[in-house]
Amino acid sequence: MPKILHLSMSDLRFDARVKRAMACGEGYGFDVQVLAPGSGVAIPPMTVRRKIDFGLSFALARMLGENALETAHSRMYPYKQMLDQANAILPDLIHAHDWDTLPIAAAIKTKLNIPIIYDTHEYAQGMHYERRMWRYLVSPSIASLERANLSIADSVVTVSEGIAQQLQIDHGLETKPSVVRNLPDYHDVSNLSGVQDDMPVNSQSRQVIMHYHGILAEGRGIELLVKTLAHLPAHYHLRLIGPERQKDFTKALRALAITLGAGERLSILPPVPPEKLVEAAASADIGFCILENNNPHYSFALPNRVFEYIMAGLYVITSDSPDMARVVLSDNAGAVTPTTDPEKLAQEIRSISPKQLFETRLRNLKSAKTLCWENEQVVLGKIYQRLV
Asked: What is the pLDDT of residues 214-226, one digit of tens each?
């Protein structure tokens, strides 16, 4: 049985993309293995000292050329460990997730003469654009590492049309990368519906639950949602679910909500496993994915939570980045907003009628049968079959 080896630097417990790709390979009859945190690989925590070392190493290496960049990468990541373990596994195909595994996959290909897939879950060189040190020191290194190794990748895959087009432009690729969107496995949650068409949204007889799930950090529109809550009537509540990625970020959110007089209407819950996110969202009414369109990373974003909200039957409100807007508007799944003003956003939310919420829920629950991983994985499955 042919072996597919997945490489990832992210925690498998919270990376639904890697887990779904693995399940896809198994479904197509491959022996699937993985090297990642939580499965045979240890990565040191990103302390302040490591962040400084990270930035300076890549900045210095970029001035010294491609080989120095590879050396810097091998210092910061378990390069040799993954290479040795791959040599012991002897896979027939490498599926490299994100830029930080690409140089390792390229080295394995050179050593074992096997095909590799580069699967970038986001626009890598646009990541952390709001952080000046990262933008000036690390982003150019990521672009250089991609450029140096993409030429030997047998297939390039990404999550949105916007990223696919930009990668082709950035690196002069002859073939545009394949798009395999981050769609959830299908869950029927119609029995968990919280919307009733006979209860007015503006009536205090019923709470309206606004929902966000994902990483809790700056730049994801979360502070905007807390400020918006203060401009909404008392029966509107905001629920946040996810891991905190910045120290004291949730503490600051609670303090902000209390200062604005909305402290009792904010709930912050711990993360749930990826396979439980749709179910966790289903009891809410409105799902938010409002990113700050001030950098390339967010401009090209098409997060999996957009599709999870649709599957949960929520009325989806996103920022006006092209890929998110295309999904929401083409499927009539909710609304797209250009605003980052809390008062204006509150006005938009208050204008959503109970009938709209109800009809959108029914429509999105139906759309979920199409917008699911069971359909999307066919693209990836065909790539596996072609390369092995």
From this structure: 989 888 899 999 9
Residue 126 has pLDDT above 60, yes or no: yes
- Sheet harboring 286-289: ordered strands across? 266-269, 236-241, 208-213, 286-289, 315-319, 334-337
> Taking Cα atoms as reference points, which of 164, 150, 54 lies closest to residue 102?
150
- Residue 130 DSSP one-character state: T
Instruction: State the amino acid at position 288 in one-letter form.
Output: F
Q: Which residues pair with 317 in a beta bridge?
A: 288, 335
Q: Which residues are CB-neighbours of 294 under 8 A, at least 6 positions away?
A: 129, 130
Q: Based on the number of CB atoms within 10 Å of its own CB, is 154 exposed (0-12), middle (13-18) or buried (19 or more)?
A: middle
Per-position DSSP letters for 29-51, written without gaps between them? T-EEEEEEETBEE------HHHH
pLDDT band at 151 (very low <50, low <70, confident <90, very high): confident
Q: What is the pTM of this model?
A: 0.86
pLDDT tens digits for 186-229?
A: 999 988 765 444 444 445 557 899 999 998 988 889 999 999 99
Q: Which tokens belong to 33?
A: 């293995």
Q: Which residue has tokens 């994915």?
A: 289
Element (H, E) at 300: none
Rounded CA separation 154/323 (Å): 26
Residue 59 near residue 92 (C-beta atoms within 8 A): no
CA distance 249 to 348: 27
